Amino acid sequence: MSTAELRHLISDAPRIMVVDGSKMVRKLITDVLKRELPAVDVAGCASVAEARKALEAGHVDLVTTALTLKDGDGLEVARAVRESAGQAYVPVIVVSGEAQAHLEQRRFTEFVTDYFDKALGHEALAAFIRGYVQPEAVPGATVLYVEDSRVVAEATKRILERHDLNVVHVLRAEDAFALLTAESLGISKHKFDVILTDVTLKGELSGVDVVQRVRVDFDYGKRRMPILVMTGDSNRDNQSALLVAGANDLVLKPIEERLLVTKVLFQLRLARMGGEAQGR
Q: By its UniProt entry, which InterPro entries does this protein fall under (predicted)?
């Protein structure tokens, strides 16, 4: 499967709905979108009511929405998208200055595909959206992948390698720490850019331990070493604990290929945009 086949948006001229009460914010987002995607059609909306009218006027391929609007909130927009005919799988991204707090407390609903922290800026938002529209490879990036099932690991590894990612797979958390230690000492042939780990691992240590030790023992910040945790646990408290411990994001099982690729590539691009100096 090629990268082109993984596009969320089939059209070369996608229609993106931008919902925000601020005219200036809508213009900023529209400007960066048009620079990144010259053929894009942007439907700017200031409220839930305007968003509903835009949905009635035609299909949308992707939606960004503020969390707070004058006549409701972004979750209502997300619900409206899902209730519109043919809109069940459209990515809906909440853009909020409090996105991380809402994510950690698992306040988002099943109607929301993803979130974006407004504090990262509009340039990063453009890269984030483009990741959904046109996933682009990050040449030379290496994923440290921790998964105790060889069958699952082989399938996931193939997905990542199709997008030109180098993947180093280990079965246990202890093996991952050994590789990270060797890298930190300059005696490894690998330079890891992102960690992908299952939450449940065989042995004494789990995915939670991977997150905590990378953040505390290795002192790697979220931008220096992004960590994505795969989990099938629907318990919101447990999901929250992973994010509070230092995971950048979660990938919920069963794994959906487009979302996995989008999330991994976005974390890689974000880390490279900010540089290591901002990751601590």
A: Bact_response_regulator, CheY-like_superfamily, Sig_transdc_resp-reg_receiver
272: domain CATH number? 3.40.50.2300
What is the enclosing helix (H) or strand (E) of 18?
Answer: strand 15-19
Q: Give yes or no: residues 96 and 169 share one domain.
A: no
Supply the DSSP symbol for 172: S
121 and 147, same structural domain? no
**Can you give the pTM of this predicted structure?**
0.69
| pLDDT for res 193 | 97
Local confidence band at 83 (pLDDT 50, 70, 90 cut-offs): confident
Sequence-separated contacts (24+) of 118-126 with Cβ below 8 Å: 120/270, 122/28, 122/29, 122/32, 123/32, 123/273, 124/270, 124/273, 125/29, 125/32, 125/64, 125/95, 126/29, 126/32, 126/33, 126/35, 126/36
- SS3 state of residue 224: coil
pLDDT per position as a tens digit, 234-275: 887 888 888 889 998 888 888 888 778 888 988 888 787 655
Query: What are the helix and strand counts (H, E) for the chain?
Result: 10, 12
In tens, the pLDDT along 88-120 reads 667 888 888 876 676 666 556 667 877 888 888
**Whether residue 126 sits in one domain with residue 9:** yes
Which residues form the domain of 201?
142-279
| Residues 6 or more apart in contact with residue 277 via CB below 8 angstroms | none
CA distance 39 to 36: 9
Distance (Å, rounded) from C-alpha 223 to C-alpha 278?
A: 7
Q: What is the distance between the terminal CA atoms of the chain, rounded to a whole angstrom?
A: 36
Place of tokens 């929301």: 112
Per-residue pLDDT, 7: 39
